[in-house]
Amino acid sequence: PVFAGMNGSAIENFSCVIYNIFLMNCTWQAGRDAPADTQYFLYWQNSRQEMECELYIKDENCRNMGCIFQNVSIGTEKAYFLVNGSSKDSLIQFYDEYIDLYKIEKLMPPSNITVSCDEIKNDCIIQWQRPQISHSNKDKCFKYEINIKYK
């Protein structure tokens, strides 16, 4: 496909991560050949919502280099991301990508961890609640690793 705009003006190194259950952080770098006055704008949509970034992360030149989305709810479908740019000097190429949101979720640690040991039986019981996740309530996708250090 032919994209309108100057070659090398689209953003690079776009990535997003979902954390703390309902926050999403996306970042990018300015196109290497983008004019100095280029400003970028991020939009995303899934089956439930379509929105522009409300909380941009800016660099020292006040250029948008990332975004924090709050109250994100995700399913198992792909979401569409679009970053376009504007400059008074030239047309800026856009960047777009489809992302499986559940694949970019950084999971919280398990909660309510308790340990009770019985010195006579010489055993311990360790219990926890599975971490909350944004996209599913199924237990089957969790594997746990316990690291025990004796003192």
Task: Report what the structure shows.
- The protein has no helices and 10 strands.
- Strand 9 and strand 10 form a beta hairpin.
- Helix content is 0%, strand content 42%.
- The chain has a domain of 92 residues: Immunoglobulin-like, CATH 2.60.40.
- The model has no long low-confidence stretch (mean pLDDT 88).
- The strands form 3 sheets. The protein has a 4-stranded antiparallel β-sheet, with no helix packed on it.
- The chain starts with 11 loop residues before the first strand and ends in a 22-residue tail after the last strand.
- The protein is mainly beta and 151 residues long.
- It comes from Oreocharis arfaki (tit berrypecker).
- It is found in: Membrane.
Q: Could you list some keywords that capture this structure?
A:
single chain; 151 residues; mainly beta; Immunoglobulin-like; 4-stranded antiparallel β-sheet; 10 strands
What is the number of beta strands?
10
> Which homologous superfamily in CATH is the superfamily of the domain at 12-103?
Immunoglobulins
Rg result: 22 Å
Mean pLDDT: 88
Q: Strand order, main sheet: write it out.
A: 1-2-6-5
Q: Could you tell me the CATH topology label of the domain at 12-103.
A: Immunoglobulin-like
Count of helical stretches: 0
Report the sheet with the most strands, covering strand number, pairing sense and barrel closure. Answer: 4 strands, antiparallel
Question: Are there runs of 5+ residues with pLDDT below 50, and where?
Answer: none
| Structural class designation | mainly beta
Name the CATH class of the domain at 12-103.
Mainly Beta
Query: Outline, from the CA principal axes?
Result: elongated
